[in-house]
Amino acid sequence: MKAMAMPEYGGADALTLMELPDPKVAPGEVLVQVRAAGVNPVDWKLAAGGLDPIMVGHFPMIPGWDVAGVVARNGLDATEFAPGDEVVGYIRKDSAEHGAYAEQVAVPVRMLARKPRALSWAQAGGLPLAGLTALQAADRVGCAAGDTVLVHAAAGGVGSLAVQILTARGARVIGTASPANHRFLLDLGAEPVAYGPGLAERVREAAPDGVDAALDFVGGESVDVSAALLRDPTRLASITDHRAAELGGHYVWVRPDGAGLATLADLADEGRLTVFVEKELPLREAAEAWRLSSDGHTRGKLVLTV
Length: 306
What we know:
It is a single chain. By secondary structure, the chain is α/β, with parallel strands linked by helices. It folds into two domains: about 1-125 and about 275-305, Alpha-Beta Complex (Quinone Oxidoreductase, Chain A, domain 1); about 130-250, 3-Layer(aba) Sandwich (Rossmann fold). About 30% of the residues lie in helices and about 30% in strands. It has ten helices and 17 strands. The chain has helices at about 40-45, 120-125, 130-140, 155-170, 180-190, 200-205, 220-230, 245, 260-270, 285-295; strands at about 1-5, 15-20, 30-40, 55-60, 65-75, 85-90, 95-100, 105-110, 110-115, 150, 170-175, 190-195, 215, 235-240, 250, 275-280, 300-305. The strands form four sheets. Strands 3, 5, 6, 8, 9, 16 and 17 form a seven-stranded mixed beta sheet that branches. Helix 3 packs across helix 4 (about 155-170). The protein is globular. The chain starts with a strand and ends with a strand. The relative contact order is 0.17.
């Protein structure tokens, strides 16, 4: 099979289109013919060796933890899906080697759910990691109907999905973003505020009594601002800043969860959640996708099509 892989840790320039052996399919796994692979900052951070202290990497390494595709065949005792089923998955395994930037990938069935019918292949490929991150962060702090929730980086890939999940639950959402993205947030159902100096004061103008919960998807000042605005410090979740836990909240590292993906798929098919794809690129242009991702100004998702 063809795959974008790396012979060793490095940056975007180390990505190479390789011909590699087809994946072996272990018991409890299915072989997925990849149609789309979402691009996430963790992909290039992992490839640069950023996760080496906590995760074993094997080479050649195929990056990519987001997949949308079609089941090609089943491993032993993998009965949850059948050949021809359209699926999505957040496929983080115990070690980094066989990812989604490839024509095929073997995936444990516990990491998969059916593909939402309402989403294109590119949209489905951008859903799993970002969608589960948003869902698990919201669940960790108990976001529910009637809550006022502050979402930082609300126009990004994770933030835009969090806004939709929260509004579907009946929460009021205040979202931080650059002014250029305020119309986008209004369309999602959030109340936009500009980030930067004076952020706490601007949020207090919108919510004089503070906020019930805060989801941080950018780190830094956002964690401190959230802690100052929260009525209950335990209802802070961050995916980027460990200090959230030190302040009484939670540091969230997203976990593979087929049931959570099924929840997201239901929301999509009910018309209450969509994935905004800023750009689709062919698999061979994965390095360009990483450069765009590392710029930090992407609205929604970048997706590789296979």
